[in-house]
Amino acid sequence: MLRSCYRPLERCLGLRSGDGLLWHKDLKPHASGDFSIAVVQANSTLEDQSQVFTSPSSTYVGVYDGHGGPEASRFVKFSSEHGGLSSEVIKKAFSATEEDFLHLVKRSFPVRPKIASVGSCCLVGMISDGVLYVANLGDSRAVLGCRVSVGQMSRVVAQRLSTDHNVASEEVRKEVKALHPDDSAIVVNCHGVWRIKGIIQVSRSIGDVYLKKPELNRDPIFQQLGNPLYLRRPVLTAEPSILKRKLKPEDLFLIFASDGLWEHLSDEAAIEIVFKNPRSGIAKRLVGAALQEAAKKREMRYKDIKKIEKGVRRHFHDDITVVVIYLDHHNSSASGRFKRSAAGYTTSPVDIFSNSD
Prior knowledge:
Elements (H helix, E strand, L loop, with lengths): L1 H12 L8 E9 L2 E8 L7 E7 L3 E10 L3 H5 L11 H22 L10 E10 L2 E7 L3 E10 L2 E8 L9 H10 L7 E4 L2 E4 L9 E2 L6 H4 L2 H4 L17 E6 L4 E7 L1 H4 L4 H10 L5 H16 L4 H4 L14 E7 L5 H8 L4 E4 L10
Antiparallel strand pairs: 1-2, 2-14, 3-4, 3-15, 4-5, 5-6, 5-11, 6-12, 7-8, 7-13, 9-10, 13-14
């Protein structure tokens, strides 16, 4: 009896089921359809953060994948601009966020010098008046599921809308090397993994101040944390890649996810899962598919990974955040259904506590 009463509350609050480190909201409305969100924690402290803001006329999605700690991803919170939406407005928002976090680092540095080495990838999507903007720093990714007709048949294809700023890509390595022609060690292969200065894979981020402010590395306080790093100039930037797209009736859905998902699923595999399965709980299904793949790589079963506590679990997979946005813009009933609801704001938990906590 108590269990049956608990289940509706669990669905309402987006609580966990099955996997003690999994949080999800199965299906909620937005201005032009439905959305689903899911997060699974692997790190001792959840470094992924996310938000979905909905109103009768617009939808905003943010996925923030932190590294070195959770401070930067928790700090990043974009909001709608009342002065209209444009690439210039988005650039200013990214710049302001970077500057605000820099001020926080400078204030905290004397007592918490490690905060200078904390950063976050940042992926945002905004839909308003049938126009989509996608902007990103780092290697979180946005992928569009688009219907195409082949004769009498139709299928869905994946179209990547964001740019992976990761030196695993030869194109990104060339970009970084071109900016540092006098530094032969700007990109180093460490045990088969390319890293900038042998430290970090992403070339753009919020934070990572010690890689953007060379003078910080000369501070005696920071040097006490480890080997000093001497930089001629900043080696990371906070300049976002921005895409603008007029949505079309054949644009069916969007997947926004941190790189924890894309480490295990290709763009095409993720799109197929969304296209072939029911909407409710689809973000959770994508997380589950990624964890199944992670388990296979270690010759394990997903149910075995579920038993592993956060922290230790990071050896098997990363924190994973997934937001799926369905685009029913060609269906007037979707917009009408939402307009009867109030504006909404959904944000993932700061941390997910396992069942044994």
